[in-house]
Amino acid sequence: MAVKKKTQTAIKKAQEAADNRPGMTLRLPIDLREAITEESRVKGDLARIVLFALSQVDREKVEIQQTRKAGLELSNPQLLHVGPEARAALKEWAESEGVSINAIVVSVLEEFFKRHKKSKTLQKELRLELRAHRSFGPQ
């Protein structure tokens, strides 16, 4: 019984520490990962694409799709640093929908890339956003 209590305490501490971190682990469907890879060129672009997509997509119009046990072939887990504010907002949204943060991000990216394929303006805006945050030195 004491071991179980210690384990529960350790899990709770780890969750509290995770709430203050800027990073999260993301697993994307393979086709979505390929679409993002086309746009990203350097380290950090994935996080910028996620943040840009979040700013461009209307939360009310996003149809949340499950990623767990949905039969989707997912990419390897990737660590994504989006900042504590964005992570907290994603966590709050996920809790209100009763899904994982990964499901929220995948759903937002799916909606964003549907629009991205059709809009030259959106493609240009994303490329400008990515270029604006790149440094000139080696990464």
Describe the protein's architecture and organization.
By secondary structure, the protein is mostly helical. The protein has one domain (21-132). It contains six helices and two strands. The chain has helices at 2-19, 30-39, 45-56, 84-97, 101-118, 120-132; strands at 23-26, 78-81. Helix 3 packs across helix 5, helix 4 (84-97) crosses helix 5 and helix 5 (101-118) packs across helix 6 (120-132). The chain is globular and about 60 Å long. The model has no long low-confidence stretch (mean pLDDT 79).
In DSSP terms (H or I, runs of 4 or more residues), the helix count works out at: 6
The multimeric state of the shown protein is single chain
Number of domains: 1
Structural class category: mainly alpha
Report mean pLDDT, rounded to a whole number: 79
The amount of beta strand, in percent, is: 5-15%
Rg calc: 17 Å
Spans where pLDDT lies below 50 across 5 or more residues: none
Alpha carbon gap, first and last residue: 49 Å
Secondary-structure element series: HEHHEHHH
Largest sheet: 2 strands, antiparallel
**Arrangement of strands in the largest sheet:** 1-2
How many strands in all? 2
Overall shape: it is globular
Question: What is the helix content?
Answer: 55-70%
